[in-house]
Write a structure and sequence with these properties.
heterodimer; A: mainly beta; Immunoglobulin-like; four-stranded antiparallel β-sheet; globular; B: mainly beta; six-stranded mixed β-sheet; about 0% helix
Chain lengths: ~110, ~110
């Protein structure tokens, strides 16, 4: 079964540093998403991406966040200057259509900011 | 604000029992709902979905019920197995035409052999 792959599985970074979280969506999918889950809390939407541009973003997705599809297979989330409160699981998801049908999530990257 | 929430944070059952996990939602405009299962260290895994024009939908060992009158969603798991132990989230599509999801906080299901 096709999978969404995320790397690394765990990233530890110092406060103020930049991090890039990487995702390889399912190959024929065109819609990409990032969600995050702070420990013990619910999964929260960050951003959706289609046709090389952001479709929607939440209020969490402020200027320190950016997304990019640098090539035909990767989808990245960059946090420019990490804060302690950015510590969370970050999930990438992809879909082959512009609805919530067919969403496939990756296993996540655990980001720990120290 | 609008939210999706769960009544029970932890549900403990015996293997073979039927499990019911509940979820309340407050956005009456939501037209699509999904139940996800999340095992430790993994991402949310789709279980079953339902559109707002339906009251009930059945899958393999799982049934989702939607009561729009009281804005309540439930997930029923028949003959619960130890492998069903996980956190279960309900999620809604809060704005028709957009593809984002609003998740509830989650219920931990613990199945004892």
């Amino acid at each position: 079964e096709p999978e969404v792959t995320q790397t690394p599985s765990h990233q530890v970074t110092q406060m103020g540093q930049e991090v890039i979280l990487r995702c390889v969506p399912i190959s024929n999918h065109l819609y990409f998403y990032w969600y995050r889950q702070i420990l013990g809390q619910k999964v929260e939407f960050l951003v959706s991406f289609y046709n090389n541009e952001i479709s929607e973003k939440s209020e969490i997705f402020d200027d320190q966040f950016s997304v990019e599809r640098p090539d035909g297979s990767n989808f990245t989330l960059k946090i420019r200057s990490t804060k302690l409160e950015d510590s969370a699981m970050y999930f990438c998801a992809s879909s082959d259509r512009d609805t919530t049908y067919g969403y496939t999530f990756g296993s996540g990257t655990r980001l720990t900011v120290v | 604000g609008e939210s999706v929430g769960l009544h029970l944070p932890t549900l403990s059952v015996q293997e073979g029992d039927n499990s019911i996990i509940n979820c309340a939602y407050s956005n009456s405009a939501s037209d699509y709902f999904i139940w996800y299962k999340q095992e430790s260290g993994k991402g949310p895994q789709f279980i079953i979905d339902i559109r707002s024009n339906m009251d009930k939908r059945q899958g393999q060992r799982v049934t989702v019920l939607l009561n729009k009158t009281v804005k309540h969603l439930s997930l029923q798991i028949a003959a619960t197995q130890p492998g069903d132990s996980a956190v279960y989230f309900c999620a809604e599509n809060p704005s028709s035409g957009y593809s984002t999801l609003t998740f509830g906080k989650g219920t931990m299901l613990l199945v004892s052999p």
